[in-house]
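chain below, 396 aa
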Amino acid sequence: MSRITPESVDSQSVRHLKNLAKRRKKETGCTSSEAHEFIAKAHGFKNWNNVLRFAKNHDTRRLSSSHSEIPMEERMSIQFRKESELEQALKQLFQEPQTLESVHHRLAERFQTTLSNALRRHLSFQVKSTATVSYSALQEQVQDFAAYSMIQLPPTSWSGCVVLESSLIFQLLQIFFGGADESNTLANRSQFTDIEYRMIKRVIESFLEDMELVGNPDFSLSPEYLNTESNATRWLKSLNTEEPIIGVVFEVQLQQDTARHSWTLYYQAQPQKIENYLIEQHPQTIALILTHAVDAQNAIAATHGLPKEVLADVLYRVATLGEVPPGIIQELKDVVVGNLEILEHPPTPETSGYERATEILRSLDPPRRQSVEHSWKQVPTYDPQFVEKLLNLERS
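prediction:
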């Protein structure tokens, strides 16, 4: 293939670049996101999001300039990718339960072979059910102690979670580490060990690799593992409570084991909200993002979703933010734009942290503003004279 540039990149080139990113991930041990960013920059793009944007524009121009010369099947494929890419594809799948179930059955068949080979013994891995689950019903289904592995589905904003029963985790560990097949759950546990988390990660990443392979290549789905926790608290907080959640229950039975274990895949159409993204960051990072990486409207929208105890600390850091090298600010902007679906507003002049803090304070409703003031006055590390000056400016 000839060299890929911003002027020539198209959907076929994107698939080639993805293969290069996979190869780099295997060779270096970096994350999928890091590999994609490296490959994008190596080919002259600012970031991976830039690659997708140029490819989409190229396909759109190609469609409009030579519409009659393109076969109908290919023309429909290009038009399909043009419309919100994979989001539209997944929505179509969800409207066609038979098609969606066939994808899950192919995934189960493939992963049954993958996991059997890894364990060096036969197991059964089959789809038990595929259904839409409401947020309230999901809350009742979650277990106190299980492996909740959160995933993303690039290049879309869809997110998901793979849930493994603790009994299955310990059963897999027992076999991987040379034990027998019989079920052997551990009582009085509420957390996995570092070794167990590493094993869970390897198993989930194998599952996601098979998930990518059974998908339609035109959709270019690249599932990515994020992290695993032993309870559902953080995952439930990340969900959009108004949107339906797709739940796919797989049933796992290992050789010579009478027990049947659940392996559940959940996913949801959920553009990542900026407040959900920020809450995972260090307070100083949040302050820098709110001041220099997003405009005033997005900054205000983001702070409205932050917990009260975090908001007071972040706003004080925004108001007292010192000078930051331009290179760091630009890199931060690239990361934020690449990871979030941010509403674009007209550009605003560069602002100081002090000015941004007063803009945000003025936007808060009275209870939240009073909560911030109370925190500032109660915490001894905050300069009382500076706090009073800031509050007076906000009230003016």
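The two ends are 62 Å apart (CA to CA). Residues 11-83 form one domain.
thats it, cya
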